[in-house]
Design a protein that fits this description.
- The chain is mainly α and about 350 residues long.
- The chain has one domain (about 5-345): Orthogonal Bundle (ABC transporter involved in vitamin B12 uptake, BtuC), CATH 1.10.3470.
- It has helices at about 5-25, 35-45, 55-90, 100-115, 130-155, 165-185, 190-205, 210-240, 240-245, 250-275, 280-290, 295-320, 330-345; strands at about 120, 125, 155, 160.
- α3 (about 55-90) packs antiparallel against α10 (about 250-275).
- The radius of gyration is 20 Å and the shape is globular.
- The strands form two sheets. Strands 1-2 form a two-stranded antiparallel ribbon. Strands 3-4 form a two-stranded antiparallel ribbon.
- The two termini are about 35 Å apart.
């Protein structure tokens, strides 16, 4: 039996790594470098604990603070959603991006952009858009929830999730979403700002984050985390199948509803502030299982921390290598996650049988 790192040690190591990455992202950037003291002072000034830096350095640091917090929240949210969906579907190939949940949320958000007035993750087009961020998140949540239920319905056969059906349903749904997004972009081609916002949703973005972006993704993450105590043990029992779980007293319908709702809302909030970022929810839970094993009590919490570390680490790596020419996070995650997904499929080729 493989030895597993103690839970407290894993949490402490990830928390320390997260803190170091956050400080580095605050101190270093393509335009300005801050000392550790100035970075801490400027960050504390955001909550009124110290005097701010001079106007321009303070504003640059503020943008870095909100970008870092948003990136950490998005990474944690997508990783948690992936771990939840993999536990529910009893399959390590399930992820928000692969089964269409991220695409559904992105389509819902894009429809809100086009129909409700033109709000995008990189710009605010409408002057009277006080409620637009919340309407955008609600629309993304509806899209994610519809995608969850659609894939679950198509992939379930006699109470068992069919792996080929799961993958094919995700591919089909993502194809439909891609077609719908292309149609919306073509229809809004003459409206440059709206079209630009749709492109930003498609590739993901962490540029020009503000306070409400960090708050929005934090709300979704907290809601999803609040469901963990109610579903972690049940997901362990789900591994033997729904019938076995029901035979030992698990309320399977309630568990599925909680898991789908938590995965949908945290994905929706992440997509509503950063656009579509694929494969975080696939890669991170697999990495965490190497340390945490299959216990969902450990897996779900550690996936949150690891997801935050993963996205911040890739962002810092880009900064050090590419400077101010950083790739959109959705593009970068596809470059990382695509080969990982192919390797995962290859390793499981005997388990994923044909129809």
């Amino acid at each position: 039996m493989k030895s597993r790192a103690p839970f407290a040690v894993s949490v402490a190591a990830l928390a320390a790594t997260l803190a170091v990455l956050s400080v580095l992202l605050l101190c270093y950037g393509p335009t300005t470098t801050y000392t550790l003291g100035d970075a801490i002072r400027g960050a504390l000034a955001l909550v009124g604990a110290t005097d701010p830096l001079e106007a321009t350095p303070q504003r640059i640091l503020e943008l870095r603070v909100w970008r870092t917090l948003t990136a950490a929240g998005v990474g944690a949210s997508l990783a948690l959603a992936g771990a939840l969906l993999q536990g529910l579907f009893r399959n390590g190939l399930a992820a928000p991006s692969l089964v269409g949940v991220t695409g559904g949320a992105g389509l819902g958000a894009t429809l809100a952009i086009v129909v409700l007035g033109g709000y995008g993750p990189t710009l605010l087009l409408a002057g009277n858009s006080t409620w637009m961020p919340y309407l955008l998140t609600a629309s993304a949540f509806c899209g994610a929830l519809v995608a969850c239920f659609a894939v679950l319905t198509i992939a379930t056969r006699d109470g068992t999730v069919s792996v080929p059906s799961l993958l094919l349903a995700g591919v089909a749904l993502n194809t439909c979403v891609a077609g719908a997004l292309a149609t919306l972009q073509a229809l809004t081609f003459d409206h440059h700002e709206v079209s630009r916002a749709i492109v930003a949703w498609t590739f993901g973005t962490l540029e020009d984050r503000e306070r409400y972006h960090a708050v929005m993704v934090s709300i979704g993450l907290l809601v999803a985390c609040s469901a963990i105590p109610f579903v972690a043990t049940e997901l362990d029992l789900f591994e033997g199948g729904e019938d076995d779980a029901a035979s030992v007293g698990v309320a399977t319908g309630r568990t599925k509803l909680l898991v789908l709702g938590a995965a949908a809302i945290t994905t929706a909030c992440a997509v509503s502030v950063a656009g579509q970022i694929a494969f975080v929810g696939l890669v991170v839970p697999h990495l965490v299982r190497l340390v945490a094993g299959r216990s969902h009590v450990r897996l779900l919490w550690l996936s949150c921390l690891t997801g935050a570390v993963f996205l911040l680490a890739t962002d810092l790596g880009q900064l050090l290598i590419l400077g101010d020419r950083r790739l959109p996070p959705g593009v970068l995650m596809s470059l990382i996650g695509g080969p990982f997904f192919l390797a995962l499929l290859y390793s499981r080729r005997r388990k994923v049988v044909a129809w």
